[in-house]
Amino acid sequence: MKPNATSNRFLLAVSWLVLPSGCGQNLDVGSDILWTSRFEVGGNSFPEWTPVPFGFGSASPVPTPNEPNMPNTVEVSSEQGHHSNFAAKLTVSGTADNTAGIGASLVQNGGLPDEAYYSAWYYLPQSVSVGYYWVIMKFRFRSVPDDPNTAGELFDVNLTNPSSGVMSLRLYDHQTPPNQPQPKVSPKSVSVNAWFQLEAFYRAASDNTGQLTLWLDGEQILDLPGPTGPAGWVAWDVVSVGYNLTPEPAVLYVDDCAISRTRIGLNGLLSE
Amino acid sequence: MLQQNDSIHEPSFGYRVHVRVAWHQRSCVIAAILLALPIAAHAADDAQPNEPAEPSSNETSGLSIPGPLDPVVGESLCPLPDAIWQELVTLVPREHLISRLRGPGTKSAPIRVEDLGAMFRILVLDKVREYREEARDCAYRAKVAALFAALIIDPAALLEAGLCERPPCSAPPAPVPPVPAEIKTLPALPPRPLVRLEIGPTLIAGLGAEHLTAHWGGALRLTLGRGRVVPVLGVAALWPADTRVGGVRLRQWRLPVDLGVRATLWGPWIDFYGEIGVAFALLSERGLDLASPRSPTGLEAGGRVVLGARLARRAGLTPFVSLQAEFLPDPPSVSALPEGLAGRTPYVWMGACAGASWGI
Q: Is the CB of residue A1 less than 8 Å away from at least one CB of chain B?
């Protein structure tokens, strides 16, 4: 056999052996996801969430005169799931007789970066008439990061009814004086009987570098620069806290909660 | 001994030899013998079958060379054919000349001279020799041509004649012999190197991705074989470079290896070559600015072509330059969370290399 023929055959053999292994490889170079909760594991123990009072899976069973055994509950349910089998089911009975703070909450209590993107998917099985408020996402702060007694309310993202059968979002800024208007949120409807994504960018800063931005289904509905809470401690809650909701109980499903250093968006992946 | 018989008629151009050989002529004899002895011996061997067993009576007793042709012909002005003949008959006995030059099998004019300006060519019995003599000393040329002819026709006679006519002979200063202008057999060239190592800095840039990536480094290539087409193996060590795929900043590192064949077009000054083969590369990507970076390593595979040139030297060090292109039909993809698939690494890598090529 001639040397050239030998070389050619050798090259061909090497090509056949090695070329397939070099095709279509995917290189996973890492993640900007800081935290996720997809409710696929752990059941009702909610291991990803902070075990604090009024924290993970906390519910406030409040007996009412008409339904003394109606609880507010947080549980993992297979009734709905966003691209998965399970979701968290938050059930609240918010009547006019109930008081604020009643609801179901999933809490990330501290330990978060001063700035990050916060995303959660929600599912409303039916339109709910909101008599006073229905908070579904919260940001809280501490004046002194290590002192729980300095905690305070900051921003509440609420579901509201601009008109009958239509639901949208509004923001309640606890730091806005009562005699001043609340920040305006673009009037974008929230899907009913379908999953919708609420994503927020929050930068904790006492000066004008602070920022809160909201996206509903990928569309920006609020951009609020300016002082927020002091840096060093941030709490983020995915909640269902209502007051005067009709019908009762009001059910809200939550899935694919994530905190990320980069925008997650509608098509963001939380796992490989 | 070199004196000629007066009774013998010279050819038509007529020359009666009764001049003693000068010291200069003797010097030429020495030099010519030294230069032409191997040729003469070879020529004598070649001419042996053509040599007649016995000269004819005509040739031995006649006064002129029979036949229609002159013994020395040619359009040469320097030296003139007559001058050569005049010198020749002083070196070789006439009967020997006649018997050799008119022997059976001898074709046309046995001695031909051509004036080539700074050179002249002498052809004797199918043996040819060219001499460079830029001064155009025609007498000297004639002597040299005659000596060459004598050595071809009858070297033994020349040796018998001796180098000294009347002892004691003093050794004359050796003249500078004419320089043979044409060497009929080329000197043996050293063989081409069996192994060739090439090393040099290289710059390789990735094309096809949204962000141009350039890697500096060093390349080492090895060829094995002396032929025009030889196998070639190459490897490069490249510095990491920062790049971006999709929205993900990356630190990229490559270790390319290739295997192929090289075809060389040898030239008098520059050797050009081309290569074709398969190329592989270990590709490592590290996510920058990510909360949880990882450093996966993948394999690239594709084809590779190279065009290069180097100064033509058979061995030792010589500079080279080359251009290369690697084509990857299915390069690795890069993904990161939460973005997902960020994009692909380059489909084409172009590079250049310059350095030293060492033939062993």
A: no
